[in-house]
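Suppose a colleague, Dr. K., hands you the sequence of a protein chain of 267 amino acids and asks what its three-dimensional shape might be. Before reaching for any lab equipment, you can write down a predicted structure in token form. Begin with the sequence itself:
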Amino acid sequence: EVMDKDFGLRQIATRTLNCYAAAVAEATLQPAVAPKALWRQIMEQLASDSCDYYREMVYSTSGFKDFFALCTPVREIGEMKLGSRPSSRTKSGGLTKLRAIPWVFGWTQIRFHLPVWLGVGKALGCILDSKDERLKEALLEMYQTWPFFRSTISLIEMVLAKADSTVSMWYVENLVPVHYAALASKLHNELDRTTNCVKTVTKHKWLLEADKEVMATIAHRMPYTDPLNIMQVEILKKLRGGFRDAELQGTLYSTIQGIAAGMQNTG
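The predicted structure, expressed as tokens, is then:
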């Protein structure tokens, strides 16, 4: 998938190699500043806090596994055998046995992208909401000065710009029993918190404010992707309701391909 996207056509392959060459030249001629000891300390704290929160939500939250299976098309994706390997390593074992690609792919289909940002808002918030001004100033300095941290936040910001709570809640409201409403609300509130924290660190009024070209590209694709999400929800409702039709299965496959093409982050 990546090879085809970056090297599938001669012109695209040439542009990709130019980008690689320019990046190597820039890194060689203008080496990045060495991270300060405090920056490393903050990164350790961010990594620990985000990982702990991610594991708590995914592995310790009651009903999370079923919620994921209900609100995303991950089960249907597994039945379609889209990849070279089955979506799960074994038939039992829950999320721990699910391979990384269907885990990311499922959340991407509903425009929620949870594996990308879950824990980030929690970790950044611990520093931004603290009374230690030294840590807060250092966090902002890291984004402005340290290329590694800046690129990490920028990638998260880009995926957050593709997330759409209205679309993901449409899946929840139509495919998930009402007793999961509290969990859905908690996750969507966490998405909002993460978005606000990222905007605080980047000092942006809106996501991708500093990269209008990428934002325009995303905005251009969404009007074509939105109808596919609506169609996919209706098809999943019919298939899960017992309706079986080969043409309907084929249409579901087409929506999965189309949404993946629109997102450009498929797992």
